[in-house]
Amino acid sequence: MENLKKRSDLLIEEIEDEVVIYDPKTHYVHHLNPMASIIWELFDVSPHPGDISKEIVSVLKTDPSNVEKDVQETLGNLQKKGLIE
Amino acid sequence: MTLSTTRFEILSLPFELTTNDKKFFDEFQELNLALATPGNGKLPQVQYSLIKNTKYFCIRENGKFLHRWAHRWPLYLSVMMSIRDSLYLHLKNYLFLHSAAMAKGNKAVLLPGPSESGKSTLTLGLLNYGYRYLTDEVAVINLSDLKILPFQRPIYVYGWLPVISDEVQKDFKFYRFKERYGHTVQPWQYAVPQREAMLPKNSSCEVAWIVFPTYNETQKDSRLKPITRAEAAFRLMQNGWNTQYFGDFGLKLCSELVKKADCYQLITGDLKQACELIDGLTGGFSVSVESEALDNIWKRKVLL
Predict the structure, then answer these.
(1) N or C: which end of chain B has fewer CB within 10 A?
(2) β strands within B20-128, DSSP E
(3) Closest Cα in chain B, distance from residue A69 (Å)
(4) CA-nearest residue of chain A to B252?
(5) What does each of the 85 residues of chain A score in pLDDT, given as a tens digit?
């Protein structure tokens, strides 16, 4: 995951606390829920899932094991959809 | 073979239709009354021909073959679908959404959704609740101010039962058709706005509510659920006829549109309740409309 980056050609709109992404290559639109949107934002700071999880746990004061699982899963999905590569 | 030709404009795009079928020609002129304006001397950018031979009706666009039909009932819909596609290919100053839209006062409620989500059913239902008809299929959003313009296609209704209450019906004309289809006779009708229901082509309304309908056959009641504006923007993009032509601007347009509106999902299991939910949302008095027309819409499942 550390070597992954957000694709630079994606078109991104932040609406309230959620993110909508338009992929000009596939013409697909993706809607990230609030948690996925936070992970998407934090991915800019560090692409490492551990760092993202730590940041979320420190801010939201939630169970670290669940957060790590969510972060891994979300980053996996973003990669599968070709939004990070 | 006698050919008839008509020139007309929709959203200022000039069209021409030529046909050897006088019956279709007359129907086309009458059904387009609220949607099109007569040609204004401009050369047509898109020319359609509908030629009937011994077996088929053959539709061409600018000389290129489009469709061949053995029956009469798909002819108007077929030409209208091609007209819609031509509009969004040629006109770049409008966002076209797959959506019905109704107006109350100067504010509009958008009902975007794919086929069979219940757009036409709700359109007819809401007519009974005093809403003005903007469109049942193609919502035209002006890019300069994000207001919606009327696109008053005739409303297709399967069957001949009355679907609009007597009070509203006076401002609509119903064109009824039937055709033998195998061993059965298929009846259908088009509701065409007239007089008060015909809106000026340059009138526009602010989009104040966006309601995404879904039809649920197994559900007895109807439910309205708020959704986030991000989800609404995402769904609008999915229901855009031409959003892909705008690239990033398409997403920006949709997000600007949702920022000005309250956004909901509507699960329709009962038409009357669905109309009342929308009416309540848009500041109506939630007056219960007891109407045979509503029952007829629902019984006939005019969902397409």
Answers:
(1) N
(2) 37-38, 46-52, 57-61, 64-69, 94-104, 107-112
(3) 24
(4) A13
(5) 668 899 999 999 999 999 999 998 998 999 999 999 999 999 999 989 999 999 999 988 888 888 999 999 999 999 999 999 9
